[in-house]
Design a protein that fits this description.
CATH topology of the largest domain in chain A: Dihydrodipicolinate Reductase, domain 2
Shape of chain A: globular
Number of domains of chain A: 2
Oligomer: homotetramer
Distance between the termini of chain A: 38 Å
Largest sheet of chain A: 9 strands, mixed
Radius of gyration of chain A: 21 Å
Structural class of chain A: alpha/beta
CATH superfamily of the largest domain in chain A: Dihydrodipicolinate Reductase, domain 2
CATH class of the largest domain in chain A: Alpha Beta
Number of helices of chain A: 12
Strand order of the largest sheet of chain A: 16-15-14-13-7-12-11-8-17
Largest interface: A-B, 45 and 45 residues
Helix content of chain A: 25-40%
């Protein structure tokens, strides 16, 4: 392999920019052998692509994503366009590109499975963009679970709440329409993060029980002001049975007033408990049962160089990493998988399929009023 | 009615002492017309009762609770003895006493209903000891829900976690045996607080879906060291559908490492959200959607004289009330109900029956794997 | 000594009520041999005293404090009246009463010394009402300092900030007039708590350097609306050199917007650091340098039965004590000193004289612009 | 001016890497017209410079900083080498380079003034690396002060505490030796951040009063183990009088157990108060006196796109920026000053001279025991 990896990015919005920043930074942060190059960006027109390339620092640009996925000089394609992703991903794979696709990977589980099968058949690295578990704190949380510091895990409470749709007068958009976003609303959009995080920390679930609800049943159309029906859930609550015997719950909402990036979790073990909140991504609350009773309490652990990956960003503790740093770790993991050192890439397309299946099971449970198996 | 109310207290443990303190304090705190008198205490022997009377400041004592409930000079009987409470309560009612019975009121719902019926037939005030909702903060929370400050309530998350049984080597006791504590373990012991709090804040539930689990399946007998089976749940997770349309979840555990008095809740409304944690009982987190975006965030509201009942304890804000003050408010509510000014006493025996029914429904749900109606 | 201690209380305001509550509760809380009796209360008129006695539960009352301090049946007099306290205290001592006087003990240091001398000559117990150090948390903090858990103490930062005078339109009152409150404003009123707390934790100061400021220089008279000068400081900042070599700072303000009961401190030692905030009086933040770096952070220690005095209020951790419980501990200490078991009563009149001297030194420092010795 | 700015960086340690990351990112983050290029890096040898260039993504490298500062293709030189900086800075200026020099700019105030004079004479942009005020939160804090949201500012409390020297067995290094680090220890190293922050928020100080202390008076030499004297302060406490009439205090320590990046401040105003802590750099605590008393409390404001610069990093609130993002803002400010749009660059060399003068005044105050003027 050459010592460069040429990246093509489809999309120049929130995530396209985040990918660009990570591609620019990751080599210097981690001292990588294979240096990523921000080579080409695609948007919906040549003009906007030209502007995006200049702004985001890409050498080349195109208004046609098909040119990007078929460009012979590119090694990796990242898909940051709105749904649907299927065609872009399949075409990229068909041209032998490694792929990082933003979540949700697909609108349906079948689609996700199709993409997974294609990637496996082609032997390319295929990653999905659940980047929140990449914080040093959540990597550390996983380590504390895995190394037994918390003892046997007995309970998990996962939450992902935001309030970007709390205002009932906000117009309807694609997220709230079944044909575009799928049957699951907050359950799909935010629940996928929450399910993904639980998978990262605890492994797969076997069964779920769910309740969903649309809070603001109608919203105005942006163009007409006419009130139309919201077609999928604003919030969802789940009970979960994990394969390792842990039970727990998930709660997601896109209308939870006051919460901005409320991805949080509590993991209770027989020897300790940890609590994490993405709004304070550079610390972890940790309780150890072995502490002397008189001196015991939840410790607010500021993340530092003794925790995973932090030291590559900053040698001094407590200085904090940010959202974009999380994407940088994600791109590092992608590159590591491509260059061969990390065969156990998480989250790959199989992990994305798993997330889709949990959502399917939750929707089934809502209809039947009983536990539904995750296939 | 005379201007004194003579109290007899059965039991001199944790709650007997708390009742004694409240009886001594409540008149001065609230400037009551009817002054309570700590008249008689009953424990299991004359000798221990004599010590308790001296220590806790009662004029009279007895080693036989039947003498207490039948004493003609007593107006009110509070039951702080271990389960079973049934006979004590029914006898006290039969003698025309007003009754405050510590939770759980009964071992079964039928028993609780029997007591409720007896109290109603006798026309006495009959209260059950869910005192946590009596904090100024939780009274204020209820007011914010009721007065519309939070808009329409859309979600509730209630938690009651403690770790007093987190140590797997602690010996088994009555709480873990079905014949003494009932079929529900943490679900009954801590869940009753959590269910009671949700009832106080939001009213009754219609249906629940539950999952329970015994974490430490065997514990040593204190006397023999022989390991015997724990017979009821260490933790429980519930989904709840309230009559007012709100959905939510409850989580209770007696083995949740690190939590000491972890009764907490979050109430999400369309206009605001509030969060309360009993470990910080003198503050409330409050978010208001109407705040300017640039200046908005959860407000940590320190409780003060502008909140319910606080000013009677202290005229200056932020000084804090404690656990025993909560019991003082409870006794004040009891006295107010007796002297006639508060016909809407909460929680009365009917409320205790409701809590039992929710627990029954949860146990049913565990068996059927589906939603169970609260009768 | 008889097994009762008869208390007379002068004043029925904030602190008079708090003393009444403590007198009613302390016997039951701590199981005392000598049971305190709320015998007599004095206010400024017979009518108001009668109302106060009924409300606060005193057997007798008077509109003339001289009758109270000279009453032969009383053992203890507590002074909760507004300044000046001198005559009440000296008369009570002259009649052989033990005395608890609310802070500030005196308007001047000379007065405080006169009272101290009188109490020592009479051999009575003479206590001043700095009750904040009586929380379980601050008792525990002192223990952690004394037992070496924190190593050598190297820095202290004490704060007492409130905002009860933040509104510039509030009328002037006695606190802001030199002839009534003395030359020190917030420095005297709140600084005395802060200085007292530092004395409790670290012992005496040798030298101070201070800066004071009047923020709202004029306020309206309540009756006339005429704006008149505020005569003493709204805030003060001090540097302090303690006798044990520790250096530190104090900051006090009565206009610090947002703070309600902002008495807080941080004690830094070579082996650990602790942080306390009176607004969260039932917890302590504690860092131990010996913790593994990867797992280290400030522990939020919830106060429980393994900490001083808490278990007498409640056997279960994390339930919380409140402001009035703090006064109950104070009265317990007073009784213990009277009945002989606690010769090292803190804070006695000598400690109050110390606080006055620190304030004097601070005022001197403000005038000279240099360090001033605490005589 | 061309549309690129060629950067040369001297040093490849903590700050050299941070500058590299910022140079790589800043164009894409802010969509700059003038794109910075990471052109050349200098370290102490050709070999290490080659490794650094490869690792950090520089096109060229040199083992001789003189070659870098005199390279005709470079537009900007950033100095990230250890002290002394004087010669590097003066040479770079002499060659017409714009300069960003890491703090401390100089070992003495005279040196700093010499550099300031040289930069002004040459007409180059000359910035010093106080990057902490560049967080969105601290930019927002400054705006809230400037726009009157907090009313008249009445008090400031600034803190910068870390514990990197809390272990008394850590060997002595250059920071603790006067000939290398100067007379001021923590006062210079951390105090400069704290003084700089206060300057950013409130403007200049007129007078200071200080107390310093060496806590660990001797430390082992790394090579010999021989214990030698620490020559400058481990902690310092200051009182400060600002030109705008505000009074306040500063506290800095390099041995404050438990604190990792404890740069924090509280700004009290007549209409509101704000509190910031660098360990939680993506939030601000804000109290507004205008809030209804019943609903008032400190708001935890999560930083989002309605706050300065955040939206360029992430369009969604609460996701968080990190330490390196702060340096990116710094480089953006530097570029803006160079390209002409930002004549009021903060902090320039004059601001660095100011910081030196405050430290000088503090040292004078320690010697005289009285207030010292900031010249």
């Amino acid at each position: 392999m050459s010592d460069t990896l040429r990246f093509g990015v489809i999309g120049a919005g929130f995530m396209g920019k985040a990918h660009a920043l990570a591609i620019h930074s990751v080599g210097a942060v981690f001292g990588l052998d294979a240096r990523p190059v921000a080579d080409m960006i695609a948007t919906s027109s040549d003009a906007s692509a030209a502007r995006a390339a200049k702004r985001l620092g890409f050498a080349r640009h195109t208004g046609d994503w098909r040119k990007l996925v078929s460009d012979p000089d590119l090694d990796v394609v990242t898909v940051c366009a709105p749904l649907p992703h299927r065609e872009m991903v399949l075409e990229a794979i068909a041209h032998g590109k490694h792929v990082l696709c933003e979540k949700p990977l697909a609108t349906t589980t079948d689609e996700a499975m199709e993409m997974q099968a294609a990637a496996e058949a082609a032997g390319v690295v295929a990653m999905v963009g659940f980047n929140y578990p990449k914080t040093p704190a959540s990597q550390f949380a996983r380590a504390l679970i895995a190394d037994g510091t918390l003892g046997e895990i007995v309970s998990f409470r996962g939450v992902h709440v935001e309030d970007f749709l709390a205002d009932p007068d906000l117009p309807i958009d694609w997220r709230m329409k079944r044909d575009q976003a799928g049957e699951a609303g907050a359950l799909g959009d935010l629940g996928s993060h929450c399910i993904g995080m639980s998978h990262w920390l605890l492994g797969p679930a076997l069964e779920v029980m769910a309740e969903t609800r649309i809070i603001h049943r109608e919203r105005p159309e942006a163009e007409t002001g006419r009130r139309v029906a919201v077609e999928n859930d604003d919030q969802a609550e789940l009970l979960v049975r994990f394969a390792n015997g842990v039970t727990g719950s998930l709660y997601v909402s896109r209308v939870a007033t006051g919460h901005k990036m409320g991805l949080s979790y509590e993991v209770v073990g027989t020897e300790g408990t940890l609590v994490f909140d993405q709004e304070r991504l550079s610390e972890l609350q940790l309780y150890l049962r072995s502490d002397d009773a008189r001196l015991s309490g939840f410790r607010r652990v500021p993340i530092g160089p003794s925790h995973p990956d932090y030291g590559d960003f900053c040698p001094a503790p407590g200085h904090g990493t940010g959202y974009n740093d999380t994407v940088t770790v994600e791109i590092r993991d992608l590159i590591a998988a491509i260059t061969g050192g990390k065969p156990d890439l998480w989250p790959n397309f199989a992990d994305a399929v798993y997330v889709h299946r949990v959502i399917d099971a939750a929707l089934t449970s809502v209809k039947t009023g009983r536990w539904a198996a995750v296939d």
